[in-house]
């Protein structure tokens, strides 16, 4: 079946199983590997992307649900890594292994788009579904607040 | 299948040093260079090499005629910051401008020395060696300039990417000197700079791979895409040592996109780095391979481990520590001292199996070329990967190339290359490049588990409450069982919190009791220190409670006065000491005391009951580093016990990158809290019960402490380990805090077994 995804502003016409999770469509068929597989069961948040601006877990989102819609991945969050969250992440040296961080940033970006100055509790609630095995949670809290102070949202 | 080209792991320390922006010594690294041509393109490689003439005095340093400096990082990056740290030792010795340094990741090859990135020894093992490699290049650049200027080399200096002759005010850039220097002999006697001249080493260094991580361009094992690549998902035997006796591939082959169903050879014990066997489904993409695997019909034979059951095994271990074991440490006469003691304190501790659960499940890509094989893998141990692939394919090692990607976490799991061998076997079997992708379920169910352990501790106290006798029995299936048929532990495991614990007690005996393994046992970040520190540091707090004293005072009393603890005092004949000599790295209780005193000061120990909180303390030396931790717990609004705040004070000797030391110790707190609170792998009928983060629970944001304070209390003397030693004191400090808060002593981990957390 033909599926059209608008990924980071570019259309991709894919002839794939409509049940395929968006995660694998992005990684294996669109060729964008910044979105990570961590659990496949909506338990870790490594695969979070934006679907029409909403944070979704790509590992449990059938690609047909994204048909004709706008998908933003970490590669498309900003043209040059200059989103306030990306800048705060680098400045505070948040990542350790980095594998969870695309999902953390995409989740945080959706949060800031709705709530430009989140409290610690807001951050904890929004990011509760994002695991970091390396344990960078405290730096992430600080970085989200720093990005919020820098005027948070996308664009 | 389309995808980005293969990106070799090279990254520039480019300019754009926004020092004010980040507050870091080098500012933030700027953008990574554009994607490189495919690694397998020989023409591109040759072109790069031709352009790459210049000074190459050793494998690690390359100064090009255009002034670029390439520095090789031969150890694997898994979040500990090795790529942001080790190359700086070379660059500083050289006198390079960091913005013109590019870091290139080495493939697996013994020519680079030890590449097995575990045991927390990247800095301590390579600090001087790497400096020498940089110094060698610097001496040659200086010699070239001195020759041109007809001056004595010792009147020249190298800094800011150039050689200078201060007396005459002349300077020549490294690039201008590279070719002339390359024609000079490589010096034999290498002169290191005075340490004060190392401009960046020991400071907060920026994160080399940070920009690539946050824009999604950083490539991990699963992100490598080769033309025509297939993806394999493997059904492995549920029980270690089991095998498929029959399988029907019809359903799998009917799934669109599935190309082949390939049985993998069953391993023979000892399992070591062999793949587990099973049946692989090879498909055009990951989803098809997953669907194909779900359609496989397989009959498994469980084999010798089919009865392994965690509840039963718990009784086995308890029985083992109830009987004398092999005496591994002895001073004085414990029997007589116990008999004469006014009272005894006794406790049994149990720590379950744990899984590594790296955020990136194991993944590797392999391409078989007929007489050679090339693999890309997130591996901690590229040389073992190379050896294992060569053996499995019947190739000479020279014909196997192992490219190292970034690792999405390692923690010891990725030093075992079984998954890399799977990729190589399947690439050979199918004739196509193959990526093996482990699902999270595969990862949790087929790990090399952290072992399960039971310990029994007994202390004899005299009438004044002084500890006069100490007996410690430990039983755990050893890591050695993965590599040979053994049930007794190695000194390398026993030194981790049994043999090496300073005890100012006159009569001490430690015993190791036999325990057979029924699954693959591997090393997990901080290894045997996890359970030994948990038991010993909990027990010391139990002694304090038994005699109604301050746990800190009791801990300091048992650690004893400041001194160098000899083998004789320990009651052992030898100590592996993490591969370092005791002369250079003695057991120095002054350093234990210093971290204890500082951490309790920071945590305001004397007011430990303020604001409804309760504190727990623990100290532990591991990987030669001294760490003391205080955990503060409170009652949460939901009836749960909450970890509110944690302090971790460390002395790891001379450091390279202070920022990454902080980050490792922050991460170690969360890592250890996850295990202590929730971590447990259990077995039934030989198979792992847990399968994903639903039942192998990790700490999440809402449960993470409000604050973690890390303080480096000393940073001189020989370098010690950093990646692991932050872990061991956390669990006992937490258990001690919970006791202070609730009066309930947790001896069985995880804490979630007995309390709401
Ligand atoms: S991979 Fe989607 S939530 Fe874990
Ligand atoms: S940085 Fe490694 S999992 Fe988050």
From TrEMBL, chain A:
The keyword Iron applies. Keywords: 2Fe-2S, Iron, Iron-sulfur, Metal-binding, Oxidoreductase. It holds the Pfam family Fer2. SUPFAM superfamilies: 2Fe-2S ferredoxin-like (SSF54292), CO dehydrogenase ISP C-domain like (SSF47741). GO terms for molecular function: 2 iron, 2 sulfur cluster binding; metal ion binding; oxidoreductase activity. CDD domains: fer2. Residues 1-77 form the 2Fe-2S ferredoxin-type domain. The keyword Signal does not apply. PANTHER family: BLR6218 PROTEIN (PTHR44379:SF2), OXIDOREDUCTASE WITH IRON-SULFUR SUBUNIT (PTHR44379). This is (2Fe-2S)-binding protein. It comes from Nannocystis pusilla.
Automatic annotation (TrEMBL), chain B:
Signal peptide: none annotated. Transmembrane segments: none annotated. One of its GO terms (molecular function) is oxidoreductase activity. It comes from Nannocystis pusilla. It holds the Pfam family MoCoBD_2. The lineage of its organism: Bacteria, Pseudomonadati, Myxococcota, Polyangia, Nannocystales. PANTHER family: ALDEHYDE DEHYDROGENASE, BLR6219 PROTEIN. Residues 215-304 form the Aldehyde oxidase/xanthine dehydrogenase a/b hammerhead domain. This is Molybdopterin-dependent oxidoreductase.
């Amino acid at each position: 079946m033909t599926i059209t995804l608008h990924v980071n502003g570019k259309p991709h016409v894919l002839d794939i199983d409509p049940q395929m999770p968006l995660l694998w469509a992005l990684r294996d068929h669109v060729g964008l590997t910044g979105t990570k597989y961590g659990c496949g069961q909506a338990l870790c948040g490594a695969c979070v992307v934006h679907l029409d601006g909403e944070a979704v877990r790509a590992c449990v989102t059938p690609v047909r649900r994204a048909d004709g819609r706008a998908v933003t991945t970490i590669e498309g969050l900003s043209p040059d890594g200059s989103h306030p969250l990306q800048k705060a992440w680098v400045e505070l040296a948040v990542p350790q292994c980095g594998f969870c961080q695309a999902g953390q940033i995409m989740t945080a970006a959706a949060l800031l788009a709705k709530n430009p100055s989140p409290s610690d509790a807001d951050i904890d609630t929004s990011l509760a579904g994002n695991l970091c095995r390396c344990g960078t949670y405290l730096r992430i809290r600080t970085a989200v607040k720093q990005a919020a102070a820098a005027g948070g949202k996308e664009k | 299948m389309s995808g980005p080209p293969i990106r070799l792991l090279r990254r520039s320390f480019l300019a754009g040093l926004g020092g004010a922006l980040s507050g870091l010594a080098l500012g933030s690294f700027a953008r990574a260079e554009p994607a490189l041509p495919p690694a397998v393109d020989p023409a591109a490689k040759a072109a790069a090499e031709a352009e790459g003439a210049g000074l190459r005095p050793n494998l690690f340093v390359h100064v090009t005629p255009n002034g670029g400096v390439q520095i090789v990082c031969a150890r694997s990056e898994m979040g500990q910051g090795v790529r942001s740290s080790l190359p700086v030792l070379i660059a500083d010795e050289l006198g390079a401008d960091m913005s013109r340094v590019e870091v290139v990741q080495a493939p697996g090859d013994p020519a680079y020395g030890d590449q097995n990135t575990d045991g927390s020894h990247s800095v301590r093992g390579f600090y001087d060696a790497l400096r020498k490699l940089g110094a060698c290049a610097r001496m040659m650049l200086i010699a070239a300039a001195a020759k041109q200027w007809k001056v004595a080399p010792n009147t020249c200096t190298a800094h800011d990417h150039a050689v200078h002759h201060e007396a005459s005010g002349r300077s020549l850039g490294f690039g201008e000197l590279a070719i002339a220097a390359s024609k000079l002999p490589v010096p034999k006697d290498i002169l290191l700079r005075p340490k004060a001249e190392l401009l960046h080493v020991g400071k907060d260094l920026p994160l080399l791979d940070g920009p690539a991580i946050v824009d999604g361009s950083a490539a991990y094992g699963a992100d490598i895409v080769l033309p025509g690549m297939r993806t394999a998902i493997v059904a492995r035997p549920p029980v270690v040592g089991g095998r498929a006796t029959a399988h029907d591939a019809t359903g799998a082959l009917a799934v669109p996109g599935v190309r082949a169903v390939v049985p993998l050879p069953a391993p023979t014990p000892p399992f070591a780095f062999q793949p587990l066997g099973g049946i692989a489904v090879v498909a055009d993409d990951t989803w098809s391979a997953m669907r194909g695997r779900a359609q496989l019909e397989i009959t498994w034979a469980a084999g010798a481990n089919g009865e392994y059951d965690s509840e039963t095994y718990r009784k086995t271990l308890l029985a083992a520590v109830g009987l004398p074991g092999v005496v591994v440490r002895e001073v004085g006469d414990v029997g007589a001292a116990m008999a004469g003691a006014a009272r005894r304190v006794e406790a049994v501790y149990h720590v379950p199996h744990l899984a590594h659960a790296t955020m990136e499940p194991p993944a590797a890509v392999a391409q078989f070329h007929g007489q050679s094989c090339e693999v890309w893998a997130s591996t901690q141990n590229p040389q073992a990967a190379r050896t294992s692939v060569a053996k499995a394919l019947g190739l000479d090692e020279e014909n196997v190339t192992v490219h190292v990607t970034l690792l999405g976490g390692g923690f010891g799991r990725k030093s075992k290359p079984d998954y890399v061998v799977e990729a190589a076997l399947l690439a050979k079997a199918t004739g196509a490049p193959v990526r093996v992708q482990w699902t999270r379920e595969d990862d949790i169910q087929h790990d090399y588990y952290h072992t399960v352990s039971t310990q029994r501790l007994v202390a004899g106290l005299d009438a004044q409450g002084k500890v006069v006798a100490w007996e410690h029995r430990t039983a755990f299936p050893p890591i050695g069982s993965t590599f040979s048929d053994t049930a007794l532990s190695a000194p390398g495991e026993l030194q981790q919190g049994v043999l090496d614990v300073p005890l100012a007690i006159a009569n001490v005996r430690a015993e190791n009791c036999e325990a057979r393994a029924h699954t693959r046992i591997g090393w997990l970040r901080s290894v045997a220190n996890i359970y030994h520190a948990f038991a010993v540091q909990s027990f010391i707090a139990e002694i304090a409670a038994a005699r109604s004293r301050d746990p800190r005072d009791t801990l300091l009393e048992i650690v004893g006065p400041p001194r160098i603890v000899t083998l004789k005092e320990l009651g052992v004949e030898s100590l592996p000491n993490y591969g370092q000599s005791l002369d250079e790295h003695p057991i120095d209780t002054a350093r234990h005391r210093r971290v204890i005193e500082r951490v309790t000061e920071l945590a305001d120990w004397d007011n430990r009951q303020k604001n409804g909180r309760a504190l727990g303390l623990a100290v532990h030396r591991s990987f030669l580093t001294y760490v003391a931790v205080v955990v503060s717990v409170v009652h949460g609004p939901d009836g749960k016990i909450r970890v509110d705040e944690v302090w971790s004070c460390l002395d790891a000797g001379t450091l390279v990158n202070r920022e990454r030391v902080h980050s490792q110790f922050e991460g170690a707190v969360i890592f250890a809290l996850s295990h202590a609170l929730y971590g447990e792998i259990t077995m039934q009928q030989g198979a792992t019960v847990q399968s994903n983060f639903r039942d192998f629970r990790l700490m999440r944001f809402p449960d993470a402490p409000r604050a973690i304070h890390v303080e480096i209390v000393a940073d001189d003397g020989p370098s010690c380990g950093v990646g692991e030693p932050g872990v061991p004191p956390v669990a006992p400090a937490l258990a001690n805090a919970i006791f202070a808060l609730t009066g309930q002593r947790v001896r069985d981990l995880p804490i979630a077994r007995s309390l709401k957390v």
